Amino acid sequence: MTTVPDKVAEGVGSWLQRSMPLVALMLLVLLFSLLSPRFLSIDNLANIAVQSSHIGLIAIGMTLVIATGGIDLSVGSVLALSICVAGLAMAPADAGGAGLSHVTGWCIGLATGALAGAVNGWLISGLGLSPFIATLGMMSIARGVANVLTDGMPVEDLPEAALALGSSSIAGMPWSVLLWAGIATLGGLVLGWTRLGRYACAMGSNEEALRLSGVRIGPWKTALYVLSGLLSAAAGLIFLGRVSNAQPSAGVGFELDAIAAVVIGGASLMGGRGSMSGTVVGVVLMGVLRNGLVLMDVSAFWQQLVIGVVVVVAVLLDRWRSA
Amino acid sequence: MSRARLALLATLALFGLSFPGQMAEARDLRIAVVGKGIGGEYWSAVRQGATREGRAQGVKVTYQGPPTETDVASQIAIMENLIQSGVDGIAVSPCNARSLNRIVRKALASGIKVVTLDSDTSDKDRLSYVGTDNAAAGAMAAQQALRLVRPGSTVAIVTGVLGAQNLQQRRDGFTREVAGRLKLLEAQPDNGDKARAVEVTENILTAHPEVALFFTDNAISGPGAGQAIRSRGKAGKVRLVSMDVTPDLKTLLDQGVADALVAQRPERMGEMAVRLLKDAIGGKAVPNRVDTGVEVVRRK
User: Fold this and answer.
1) Which region, left, alpha or beta, applies to residue B219 given φ > 0 means left and ψ of -120 to 50 means alpha?
2) What are the structural domains, with CATH classification, of chain B?
3) Interchain CB distance below 8 Å, A247 and B4
């Protein structure tokens, strides 16, 4: 028999569980601000937000895909392919490009990402490949196509306007951060309040039950992989502005950063559970770690170690929570 | 639940305990070395050279680098974080010559002394570049080639990425030195992939059986070409001159597959970069470029 105080304790407990990533982030912020007087400056916080924004966008799509119990390993390669295609579209003709306007180039890049996502979706829900295998294949295919198209060389001489999303601000707010905040909010709404979001979680907890209830799963699942591809391409447009050219080697390892952020944010790799706010916190937490450790003159080896420890601790927490 | 929280708190406390010591030190000069990567013999040598010189000069040196040599975005983020941390000097080896231009200017504008190391930015608006004079290194390799084969022999070049500036300079240096004395085939790229270097070399051996010597301008093409030459049974018949000295290249040298290696001096790069930065911070003028030189390693 449960008493009222028990219920209150349970409520507080479950709130704490859900907010665990946020609590961890706040502790980390507190720690770094005590250790480095420069950490809490506006400049530095903006710096962290800008640095995290491209992984932030990728992690939004990754959250949706992981909620289904799937995974998207191709995000980094799709990012590279999208920016190379966009770059070739925008670069002037004498630099081997098509000389299109930057907005057209962006749209072509986004379409490329969506197309790669659609292929992933088709391989998974149409041909029944496991998401791991399908997206592992796409990881290699997209990278290969990017290298073939660019001959392995960065696409240079892009128009200045093409770089705006990663390098300029409006009213003091960097475009990249605004985009991230906006799309994360949208992503949260999709996950929590739309049929697509509910189906995503339902696929992750019991796909068979969802199918038996009369839902045609294929198109919904494909839509989620399309979103993941689209968001990887959007992340690419920010990335383009950060590095000033379109490199076919861009984005190696981004899938791991995004997956780590999603898991730190409280999603389960087994599917059925995911939180957009948690993912945002997970991305920020990794950004804060990387920034804070450099601010404190911690060398690169120790940074790798610490970030690895944090990811493992997050997964352990995940297991304890779901136990 | 409480177990989980304890674990988290313990982790955080661990940070708290291990790092404050570094903040408590008096205001030493702080220099950061940002490599293209953090693993591998080459970057370890850079780091060791820099750290040793830092100790000698009484400067605090930390080594940073992106997880992979193509991860430009991480390298830029590291630079941004270093600017925020208010270091006094940065020695950076750009993962991409153009992508780093903007952040190098930003660092200089915020009063940080910046030199490039091993490779340069395309705008060259750092204080100094410390590294191999690649054209001279290429010429040095060419002299080895001229020593190894008869005049008029055919030479093939296997390169990494066609657009990489340092490799281009090495090939140019090589080409100028052998001009009119050896016949050069067009350079073939392997895009930094050893397996591809093996294929490329095999294809050249098939298409041009008259090739007497391979020149490989980097530490990945070299072992790839060596492997192909050995597996075709051409060791000692087809000569190999490579840039860089790595464990696998040393093995090829000992086995008689490679004939001469032109070694860069990464440790000296780290050392010189820190010394120059210390000078620049102290208000001394520094040279626009410092050649760290090469040395030729031959079979004993």
Assistant:
1) alpha
2) 25-132+266-293 (3.40.50.2300), 134-263 (3.40.50.2300)
3) no
Between CA A303 and CA A306, with CA A304 as vertex, the angle to 5 degrees is 65
Domain map (residue ranges) of chain A: 43-322
Two tokens, residue B21: 């010591």
Q: Where are the beta strands (DSSP E) in chain A?
A: 169-170, 173-174
Q: How far is it between the farthest Cα atoms of chain B?
A: 78
Coil, strand, or helix at residue B298? strand
- Option in B8, B22, B71 nearest A313 (CB): B8
| H-helix or E-strand spanning residue B129 | strand B128-131
The helix (H) or strand (E) run that includes residue B289 is strand B289-291
State both tokens at B287: 């040279």
Q: Which amino acid is at A186?
A: L
The DSSP string of B178-235 is HTTTSEEPPPEE-TT-HHHHHHHHHHHHHH-TTEEEEEE-STTHHHHHHHHHHHTT-B
Total-model pTM: 0.82
Q: Which residues in chain A have their CB less than 8 angstroms from residue B16's CB? A: 31, 35
Whether domain A43-322 has CATH 1.10.1660: the reply is no
The residues near B164 (Cβ < 8 Å, ≥ 6 apart) are none
Amino acid found at A216:
R
CA A255 to chain centroid, in Å, comes to 8
Q: How far apart are CA A286 and CA A292, in angstroms?
A: 10
Which chain B residues have a beta carbon less than 8 Å from that of A300? 38, 63-65
pLDDT(B21) > 90: no
| Backbone angles phi and psi of B183, in degrees to 5 | -95, 125
pLDDT at A3: 63
- C-alpha Rg value of chain A to the nearest Å: 20
Give the model confidence (pLDDT) of A138-177 as tens digits.
999 999 999 999 988 899 999 999 999 999 999 889 999 9
What is residue B28's DSSP assignment?
A: -
Q: What token pair was written down for A210?
A: 């969802």
CB-closest option in B3, B62, B81 to A320? B3
